[in-house]
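Figure 2 data, in text form.
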Amino acid sequence: MSASFPRSRSARRRGAALLLAATTLLAAGCPSAAKRVSIPPAEESVLRDRGDEKILAAVREGGSDPFAVIAVFRGDVFMGHAGMLEESFIPILDEFGNAAILLLSPGQVLPLLKDPSVLRLAWFGPQGRLARLDPSLELDLLSRYGKGTEGKDVRLLVRFLDVPGDAEERFVTATGFRVVSRSGPTWVLSAPVSGIPRLLENDRIIYIEKASNP
């Protein structure tokens, strides 16, 4: 997180929740908010090239339900882009250098991607999943996306609700992670940080932090 940013992460998220509530009330009065969106080929190309398949699916579904994304900008988020995001009613949930976690509604995705300051977006998921990430891991995630190194393997300490079994191991393997070690409800996994949003789709995973290297 940029040192010059005056508010704590929790304060930003409280502000995001208030903004989201106001946006949701406005969207509730729009009869077309829940309709499936038709995307022209040129805009679909933008979504594929600078977003990903899950973001494309969310835009197609339309509606007003928000989701978190990881955004990479051409410069420092706080110094260069915070004003633009505020004017666009896009809450910043966390930021570090040129990357940020933003809370978007489907209708905000394409206008944001068309902004020349935005390099790319990556799906993260519902905002509530962020609470299961250790703060230092969240900043490391942003740092890696900002540098374009999110595809390099890292070791993570993953805590389950209780001792995981075969179903959890199959899930972990399907996300692209490798099980390094097991200790009761805590596993050490290895894989790129880009797989973290998929890990958090499993609600039996209650916390993820960086693991110490052996």
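Caption note: DSSP finds eight helices and eight strands in the chain.
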